[in-house]
Model the fold of this input.
Amino acid sequence: MLLGASSLLLSITLCAGLAPKGPWDAFNYAPASKIVRPVSVRSTHGSVAGAQRLVKDASAKATFTGNSSYVVLDWGKEVGGILSLTINDATPSSQFSLSFTESPQFINPDRSDDSCHSTAAGDGDGVQSFRAPLAKGLLTQTIGQQRGGFRFLTIASNSADPLTISNISLAITFMPHWDDLRAYPGYFFAPNPGFHDVDFLTKLWYAGGWANDASGGPVEGPILVDGAKRDRVFPVTIVYNIILHQTILLRLLFRLMPCCSD
Ligand SMILES: *[C@@H]1O[C@H](CO)[C@@H](O)[C@H](O)[C@H]1NC(C)=O
Ligand SMILES: *[C@@H]1O[C@H](CO)[C@@H](O)[C@H](O)[C@H]1NC(C)=O
Done:
């Protein structure tokens, strides 16, 4: 057992490097840049002129008119980090709030999903309010305001006065020790022609790998992990980690995959 463990460690060291390119890359959720933008508008309510522009290009603006008008932006996958947006126009009374949720089931302009402050009623987690008077220009969340583990962002006007914004982005803060989030040393590819979705297993692995990364990083300094909200470690998460980050383990166990150094 002891010998097994030490030869495993040695092999991991020898095998540091990138996974070869292949069809599995299409399933990798990790973005090429740590600055990500919302990919689509899930819904708008009330009056939000040009909401679709918020996902098209950084300089395109949307204008909220009326108290409680809101837009729900979809980031396409689980993200977490420091949000910023540009306030292009606001009156001295314009104000707005942000709410966050991982599942569309909990989209709500008045509260976030219950992942930070869980209560029996599911309403422990409120909104982040940005109150009047707003300063025009780039607004960036503080480290303390950053949010982990969300896919949907709701931006709601909280005043009758108009508000024009653009340039919504998020600087991912998990996995701070990795410059390139796509650079997995390992890979997983297991087409199953007998199943209605031949790529089901591969999708599952990469989704698990990304969810695992979104909870990860060395515990040093102000970083964000969303593991806390799950309040447990899934054994399967460890397996995802092993496979995507260290292909050699699979090789050792199953003699299936090529490795870089032998
Ligand atoms: C848009 O946001 C980025 C941060 O992602 C920032 O660096 C840039 O200055 C912003 N542009 C404007 C015009 O505010
Ligand atoms: C906006 O609407 C909410 C409830 O719908 C209300 O509580 C709040 O006072 C309104 N705010 C303004 C500035 O009118």
Remarks:
- Residues 1-15, 222-236, 246-262 have pLDDT under 50 and may be disordered.
- The domain at 35-172 is CATH 2.60.120.260 (Jelly Rolls).
- The pocket of 2-acetamido-2-deoxy-beta-D-glucopyranose (ligand 2) is lined by residues 67-68, 158-160 (CB under 6 Å).
